[in-house]
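tool_call: predict_structure(chain=1)
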Amino acid sequence: MVRLPTQHGSAHRSGPPTTTVSMSSRLTLRRHRDIPAFLSAALRLRRLFRDAQGGVTLDLSAQPLRRTFWTFSVWADDQSLNAYVSDASHVDVMKRFRARMADSSFDRSEQSSLAPSASLPDSSRSKRRSTSPTTSSARRSTKPDTKSPHDR
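tool_result:
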């Protein structure tokens, strides 16, 4: 597993907000040959995050030999998350790689009223959620024929 250092966003520099929204994703490419282009695009989006309004932290992990990437981002609010996702640079990457994905899943959660000593949501916990079966309404998979382990 390769994990890049946490990227801090604009909202982190002003102190972590008391309410946060987190988004985790698991993205699996169809072919190994798409890994360099995907990683390059992911790094460009990581740089974009640095100045994104309301961005707190962003983690990027990968298992290149398995063609799998994970992201975990924390935001000050839904509006900031939605603005980043709908930014032209992010939309372009989503469009370019949509057909190259074997599978992708997303999990959104919210944490309220962080105590001053409390930590931000844990990316490793979120990554485990992204890889285990769940019935949460906040979780989406773009692979329509995905069966749960119970159906196999």
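agent: The first helix runs from residue 10 to 13. Proceeding to next step.
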